[in-house]
Amino acid sequence: MRVEPLATEKESGMRTAIGVDLGGSHVTAGVVDEDGAIKERHERDLEDLSFDVVIEALGAVVGAALAGAGKVAAIGVGSPGNIDPKTGIVRWSPNLGWENAPLGPTLAKRFDVPVFVANDARCATLGEYTFGTGAGTKNFALLTIGTGIGGGIVAGGELLLGDHFGAGEIGHHQIRPTDGFICSCGKVGCFEAQASGTGLIRHAFALAPSFPKSALLDVTRDKLSSKKIRKAAQAGDGHALAAWKNYAADLALGLANIIAFLNPRRIALGGGVSSAGDFMLDAVRARVEELTTSVPRGETEIVIARLGNDAGQVGAATMAFRGGLTEKLQ
Ligand SMILES: [Zn+2]
Fold first, then answer.
1. Are residues 203 and 237 in the same domain?
2. How far away, in angstroms, is 252 Cα from ligand 1 center?
3. 18 is in which domain, residue-wise?
4. What confidence tens digit (pLDDT) does each residue in 76-113 have?
5. How far apart are alpha carbons 302 and 298 in whole angstroms?
6. Which of 40, 76, 148, 235 has the most CB atoms within 10 Å of its CB?
7. CA atoms of 135 and 161, how far apart (whole Å)
8. Is 311 part of a structural domain of the chain?
9. Whether 199 and 283 share a structural domain
10. Half-sphere exposure (CA, 13 Å, Cβ side) for 248?
C-alpha cells in the first residue's frame, strides 16, 4: 500500500528517496531528500555475508526507512564490488564473497518502488560531487580511505564508469610493486595495501624491529586499529610517527599519480582515516607537490570530504533520484 505524502512534502514538492550503504560489517538505509539531507536512518550490523542473510538485513532497514518516509521516488543501493548499474546485478564482490548476485532484482521484487544499485565508491563520489567538495568542479576524485581504498572519478563533468564498470578502482594501482605489502587482490604494493587504514597498521608492523621498546602493537588483534596508531602519532609516539610518515609518503605517491592521470581541480579524502583532518593533509601536501611534474603544481586542492560517512547513503539516494547511475551528470 502506498502511503500518501505529508502535506508539507506536497507543498514543497521535495521528493524523497531511500539511500542504502551496504558495507562488509553493517548496512545503513537513510531517508534522503533532494537537497541531500538525511532525514532519518536505520542501521544493522552484518556478521554473516551470505546473500540471503544480507537481503534480510537490507529488507529490514529499507522497510523501516520506507515506513517513516511516506512516498518515495526510488531506492538506491551502494554495494562493494563490480556492479552492472543497468541490471543491479553484483557481478563479483570479493568483500561480500558474491558472484552474479541479483541484488537489485531481488529488492525490486520485495518493494513496490524502483531499485537502483551501483558500486559503493561510485555512489559516494556522486554524493560528494553533488553536495560536497566536488560541487562546482568538472574534474574531481574522491578517495574513501578505510579498511581499503575506494575511489571515483569525475572527468569533464562526467562520472567515469568504464567499459565494465571498473573505472575508479584507484585502490588497485600499484605504487610499490617490488617492496610493498600484499594486497587483498593478490598484487604487491597496491595503493590500497599501502595507504588504507590497514596499510597504516602494516607500516607500524614493518617498523616494529626498529622500535623494540615500543608498546604500540601490544594489544589484542581486535583492539589494533589505524585510529590508535594515528592518535599515538599525534601524541608524539616515535614508533607511530615513523609509521605515519611512511604511510603519508605512500598516500602522497598515489595522489600524485591521480593528478598525473586526471589533472583534477580537487581530490577529496573520505573514509575513517580522513578523520585525521589537517594532520593528514599537512603530511601529504608538500610531497604531492614534489611528485607533481608534468601538471602545474599547486593547482589541485587536496581536501577532506565534506559528507563523511554519509556520502554513501546520500550518493545512493542521488542515484535513485536520477533514475540510475549514468556518466552524464549535467
Ligand atoms: Zn590490489
1. yes
2. 17
3. 7-119
4. 999 999 999 999 999 999 889 999 999 999 999 999 89
5. 10
6. 76
7. 19
8. no
9. yes
10. 23
Residues 75 and 97 in one domain: yes
Tell me which amino acid residue 101 is: A
Same domain, residue pair 43 and 165: no
| Residue 245 alpha carbon to ligand 1 centre in Å | 22
Give the number of other Cβ atoms within 10 Å of residue 12's Cβ: 12
Q: HSE on the CB side for 268, CA within 13 Å?
A: 30
**Tens digit of each residue's pLDDT (9 = 90 or more) over 158-196:** 999 999 999 999 999 999 999 999 998 899 999 999 999
Shared domain check, 57 and 164: no
Q: What spacing in Å lies between the alpha carbon of 191 and ligand 1's midpoint?
A: 7
How many domains does the chain divide into? Answer: 2
Does 145 lie in the same domain as 93? no
We report the CATH number of the domain holding residue 23 as: 3.30.420.40
- Tell me the residue type at 122: R
pTM over 0.90: yes
Q: What SS3 state is found at 318?
A: helix
Start-to-end CA span in the chain (Å): 35
Asked if 139 and 14 sit in the same domain, the reply is no
Supply 6's cell numbers. 505529508
Ligand 1 centre distance from Cα of residue 306 (Å): 26
- Distance (Å) from CA 300 to ligand 1 centroid: 25
Return d(Cα 13, Cα 148) in angstroms, integer.
39
Q: How far is the CA of 63 from the centre of ligand 1 (A)?
A: 35
Q: Which residue has the cell 536520477?
A: 322
Distance 23 CA to ligand 1 centre (A): 18
